[in-house]
């Protein structure tokens, strides 16, 4: 079976259906419904207080909720925060944890006179609101879990109206912290966050594709559906190509979530999102610009997520630099090695 | 090491020995312009041709994964595989699927040994993207057929041992088409060059003037030619040759870059895209094995892969000219760059233009 078919297993399809059903009910009640159903903790083992399931199940949740343009603050708790905490041998009871590893963050640690580990600085575009209890940061080779009640939160929103705050730390004592091995750096944490956003992008792109195909088949101009115009048909095909490309980008990373593959996923999905969102708007004409219509809720998310957790150009640079930094591997070998074990 | 990893290592060893002994010079687009029958024979002797063909004919008896590993290693290295490429990629699978026992026994062992150069005669002066408009016709005579008409853009016909010709056997648009194996040279077949903008001779115009073909050289069933050709086209569309045509150039250009090169993001983008194409390629290979040749993923991979190939020419020029990178190109790099520039427009045309492919994709959507 191709790794591109990871979504088609029956368990995952039923999880997708269940999530679609939850989204179809009340939008205002959805966040609580998701919490009650344990969705944010999919991917965390039950012994660690999670809801069980693996990285693919967690990805289905991220993808499906994003395709519904649902309120997803905290939904990546299992996918990002608990994964990182488990690397440090830490676990935490069911709570909603945001993660920040933005390259612009300026965080530093210090030891107080009484030996407490203290964190100060600023973190940008953090997806937190009053529902989130903790923030996970990587600072000076420590993973630290901070209670948001100890921070100053300057709230804000991204293009889609999702909470994105600037969080200020003034000698905050973390709830927990643990030293991590030197090969786990802030970029590795950022890459995992980037994969989460890539999965979200892929989910929203699938929805944009479906919405646009439906619209083009329904909307008539010059006496026929606009999809029957060859230029429109080709634009629809282009959106499908870009959607396939982003599906393949995340499938590669989910199958083997190395930092390089996560970086690739974000580079690919972000670039596809830019092109596909513009093509979708072009096909929709003025209708797509209306707030009442669903397209904008998806495209504004695509634009925001593309820029978050490292924009495509950031990751391209990272991948290229990693290649240039090693001198004894050819370009071809490094492409093949990056996928080692994938198809054998 | 897994079986596929061992196979990959074996190809790499073969290529390393060839390179060290001057066996070949890397070329862009080597599956089209890298014609070297001796290289093909050495590759055949190393059991690296016919990976998916049955062992009874001397093949490896492997799966599509085996063929993909060998293909991508050869193409990424720019190895000159044009002499046997079409014979292995389209002709051999078609003979295996549709051919008679006698055809299989005659052709497959030779293809596997790398001794057969095949041309595939599809396009005509008035049948390019609209392939079903083929007008070359075959008239039944005692013991065989007489073929008349003209094929154009036929790769390697001037080197070929034979040519598979799609010809009209009745007036019906699709079911009126059949395939014939025309052995070359042939007294009633004229082959003349169509030189490319590079000045090189890879394509031909082939004229058939009542060229006799024995009944034994009919490939598959009369009237089934369109279906057979579509199957071959699917195989043609869906390989790494749709995203690796310029790779030897990129490999050469990045070799001596400084660690702090300003081209890092360009290189990262190349790694990201090719990694992703490879994932799609594995899916496409599965579709082909399952016989699903109409799947839109096949058309989509060719569309996005060849668009990427064209963009890599710009990336290569940018790497070549970026301040801080080596100021002069090696002769090999210069030659590869020229090749890529000359060949680039063809990437999105051959094997079905990207417009035709997007038509296929959108038709699938709107069904």
Summarize it:
The complex is a heterodimer of chains A (344) and B (367). By secondary structure, chain A is an alpha+beta fold.
| Percent of residues in helices of chain A | 40-55%
Unreliable runs of chain A = 339-344
Terminus-to-terminus distance of chain A:
12 Å
Compute the number of helices of chain A: 10
- Oligomeric state, counting identical vs distinct chains: heterodimer
Strand tally of chain B is 8
Distance between the termini of chain B: 45 Å
Q: What is the gyration radius of chain A calculated from CA atoms?
A: 21 Å
Strand coverage percent of chain A: 5-15%
Q: Main beta sheet of chain A: strand number and arrangement? A: 4 strands, mixed
Secondary structure: number of strands of chain A:
10
**Radius of gyration of chain B, CA atoms, in whole angstroms:** 21 Å
In spatial order, strands of the major sheet of chain B run: 1-4-5-8
Approximate strand percentage of chain B: 5-15%
The arrangement of helices and strands of chain A along the chain is HHHHEEEEEEEEHEEHHHHH
What level of helicity do the residues of chain B show? 40-55%
In the predicted model, the low-confidence regions of chain B spanning at least 5 consecutive residues are none
Explain what you see.
In chain A, 48% of the residues lie in helices and 15% in strands. In chain A, a hairpin with a 5-residue loop joins β2 and β3. Chain A has a 4-stranded mixed β-sheet with strand order 1-4-5-8. Chain A has 344 residues and is of the alpha+beta class. The C terminus of chain A is likely disordered. By secondary structure, chain B is of the alpha+beta class. Helix content of chain B is 48%, strand content 15%. Chain B is built from 12 helices and 8 strands. In chain B, α1 runs parallel beside α4, α8 packs parallel to α10 and α10 packs antiparallel against α11. The chains are: A alpha+beta (344), B alpha+beta (367).
């Amino acid at each position: 079976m191709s790794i591109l078919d990871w979504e088609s297993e029956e368990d995952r399809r039923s999880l997708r259906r269940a999530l679609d059903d939850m989204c179809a009910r009340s939008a205002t009640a959805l966040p609580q419904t998701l919490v009650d159903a344990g969705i944010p903790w999919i991917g965390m083992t039950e012994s660690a207080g999670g809801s069980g399931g693996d990285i693919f199940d967690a990805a289905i949740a991220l993808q499906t909720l994003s395709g519904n343009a649902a309120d997803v603050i905290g939904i990546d708790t299992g996918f990002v925060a608990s994964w990182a905490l488990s690397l440090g041998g830490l676990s935490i009871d069911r709570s909603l944890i945001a993660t920040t590893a933005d390259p612009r963050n300026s965080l530093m640690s210090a030891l107080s006179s009484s030996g407490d580990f203290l964190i100060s600085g600023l973190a940008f575009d953090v997806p937190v609101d009053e529902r989130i209890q903790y923030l996970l940061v990587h600072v000076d080779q420590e993973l630290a879990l901070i209670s948001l009640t100890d921070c100053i939160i300057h709230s804000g929103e991204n293009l889609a109206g999702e909470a994105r705050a600037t969080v200020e730390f003034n000698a905050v004592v973390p709830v927990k912290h643990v030293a991590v091995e030197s090969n786990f750096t802030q970029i590795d944490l950022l890459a995992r966050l980037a994969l989460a956003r890539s999965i979200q992008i892929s989910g929203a792109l699938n929805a944009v594709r479906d919405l646009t195909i439906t619209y083009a088949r329904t909307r008539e101009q010059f006496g026929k559906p606009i999809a029957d115009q060859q230029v429109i048909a080709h634009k629809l095909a282009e959106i499908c190509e870009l959607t396939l490309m982003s599906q393949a980008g995340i499938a590669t990373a989910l199958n083997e979530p190395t930092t390089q593959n996560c970086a690739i996923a974000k580079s690919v999905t972000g670039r596809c999102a830019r092109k596909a969102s513009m093509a979708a708007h072009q096909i929709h004409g003025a209708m797509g610009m209306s707030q009442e219509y669903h397209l904008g809720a998806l495209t504004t998310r695509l634009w925001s997520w593309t820029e978050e957790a490292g924009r495509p150009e950031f990751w391209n640079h990272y991948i290229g630099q990693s290649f240039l930094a090693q001198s004894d591997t050819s370009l071809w070998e490094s492409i093949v090695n990056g996928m080692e074990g994938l198809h054998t | 090491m897994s079986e596929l990893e061992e196979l990959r290592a074996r190809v790499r060893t073969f290529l390393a020995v060839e390179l060290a002994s001057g066996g070949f010079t890397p070329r862009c687009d080597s599956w089209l312009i890298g014609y070297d029958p001796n290289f093909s024979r050495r590759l055949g002797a190393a059991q690296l041709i016919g990976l998916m063909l049955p062992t009874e004919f001397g093949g490896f008896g492997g799966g599509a994964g085996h063929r993909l590993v060998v293909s991508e290693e050869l193409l990424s290295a720019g190895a000159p595989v044009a002499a046997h490429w079409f014979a292995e990629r389209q002709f051999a699978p078609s003979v295996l699927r549709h051919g008679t026992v006698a055809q299989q026994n005659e052709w497959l062992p030779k293809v596997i040994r790398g001794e057969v150069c095949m041309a595939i005669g599809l396009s005509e002066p008035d049948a390019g993207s609209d392939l079903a408009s083929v007008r070359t016709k075959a008239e039944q005579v005692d013991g065989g057929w007489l073929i008349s008409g003209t094929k154009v853009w036929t790769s390697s016909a001037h080197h070929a041992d034979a040519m598979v010709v799609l010809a009209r056997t009745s007036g019906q648009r699709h079911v009126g088409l059949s395939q014939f194996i025309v052995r070359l040279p042939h007294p009633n077949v004229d082959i003349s060059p169509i030189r490319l903008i590079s000045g090189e001779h890879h394509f031909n115009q082939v004229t058939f003037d009542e060229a006799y073909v024995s009944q034994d050289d009919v490939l598959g069933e009369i009237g089934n030619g369109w279906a057979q050709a579509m199957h071959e086209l699917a195989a043609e569309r869906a390989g790494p040759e749709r995203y690796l045509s310029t790779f030897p150039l990129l490999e050469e250009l990045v070799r001596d870059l400084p660690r702090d090169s300003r081209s890092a993001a360009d290189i990262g983008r190349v790694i990201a895209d090719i990694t992703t194409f490879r994932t799609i390629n594995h899916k496409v290979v599965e579709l082909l094995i399952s016989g699903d040749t109409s799947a839109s993923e096949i058309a989509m991979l060719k569309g996005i892969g060849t668009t990427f190939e064209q963009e890599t020419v710009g990336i290569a020029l940018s790497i070549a000219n970026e301040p801080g990178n080596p100021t002069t190109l090696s002769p090999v790099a210069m030659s590869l760059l020229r090749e890529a520039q000359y060949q680039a427009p063809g990437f999105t045309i051959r094997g079905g233009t990207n417009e035709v492919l997007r038509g296929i994709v959108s038709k699938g959507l709107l069904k």
